[in-house]
Amino acid sequence: MNIRKSTEEDIYEIMNCINTARQLMRDNGNNVQWTNGYPSQELMLESIKNGFNYLIMDEGAVVATFDFILDDEPTYAVIENGSWLNNEKYGVIHRLASNGKAKGVAQFCFEWCFSQFPNIKIDTHESNIPMQKVLERVGYQKCGTIYIADGSARIAFQKA
């Protein structure tokens, strides 16, 4: 597998990954994350324009997408029931989505991001058990609870 930045021409594959991941969440009992059309095609096009979106490729084919941002995440300013491992500059991973055509994409993504910037923060919903398991397996630590823009809680993880 390898990783490359996405372009607007990749939007169909990106949305395919997102829609497949959304269905996988539902199949695993997570009915609360990625609802009401989130993340939208418009949001993903904006992410591409800003240079945040990447594709995970396997033998030349798209197998997953994610955003990797080297900037502060406003919703991480306040953390409850714990604390961040440090207050240094960090990278953020958002909207990891696989189309189900390759195994190990989450681990590959998390390890690649850490190799690019060795202080990473990420959050996920408490119902997203598969994501939590992968994060813990590759060394991310639960740090506490953050609240996203709509006010809903997310479990915050960090690896430093």
Automatic annotation (TrEMBL):
Segments forming domain N-acetyltransferase: 1-160
Gene3D superfamilies from the UniProt entry: 3.40.630.30
Residues in the signal sequence: none
GO molecular function: acyltransferase activity, transferring groups other than amino-acyl groups
Domain of life of the organism encoding this protein: Bacteria
Protein name: N-acetyltransferase domain-containing protein
